[in-house]
């Protein structure tokens, strides 16, 4: 059930950018924020439900590392090196504790100072993001996708395509994501807790909800964790992720082209 939970922000924004001026900037910001929160939720799912035997001493060491990171932040330390050193220790302790080490990256990012809006040039977090972005966008994500998306179709039959794993994953991405996101957004708007992104309409909001069904790399990652030592099931997950992600992308593009402004 956790496999369709995440949104591949890079692919979703890439598809959205193909529509150009048909999509207002506010919707792109909305999709970015939604996908980030979505992926944070997926990381928490990994930490809570895909954790092996817990080592209390290592967990305490990890918590101590987080406390040091918080202290560095509160003391106003702007140098990146201390954060990176403690972050590496945090990753090691988290890995040895039995909790999935992806949580270490989230904790580290939350502790590195962002700075004030008028101090962007001296923001350690933005500086680190600028340094990492080319490597992540052009190396890590493509290599991960290439290495994990490959699946042999020779053993995939119609019966297997309609099996519970590929069908459940595909429908979770294609139907579950768009229905859940659009329904909750609509309820929040109707209740006065939120409003439509500036310059957008209900059709465009639905189109963005459909694009959130592009799980791809994050869903593949969770799928590998969900079925360790079961390559056949992992292959079925890959098929479901690919089908669900492609159909979600196509549906989102069609809806956004239909309801988007021309220009």
Automatic annotation (TrEMBL):
GO terms for cellular component: plasma membrane. InterPro entries: Na/H_antiporter_dom_sf (IPR023171), NhaA (IPR004670). GO terms for biological process: regulation of pH. The chain crosses the membrane at residues 29-50, 56-77, 89-115, 135-156, 168-193, 205-227, 239-260. It is found in: Cell inner membrane. Its main location: membrane. It comes from the Bacteria. One of its GO terms (molecular function) is sodium:proton antiporter activity. It is a multi-pass membrane protein. Keywords: Cell membrane, Ion transport, Membrane, Sodium, Sodium transport, Transmembrane, Transmembrane helix, Transport. PANTHER family: NA(+)_H(+) ANTIPORTER NHAA (PTHR30341:SF0), SODIUM ION/PROTON ANTIPORTER NHAA-RELATED (PTHR30341). This is Na+/H+ antiporter NhaA.
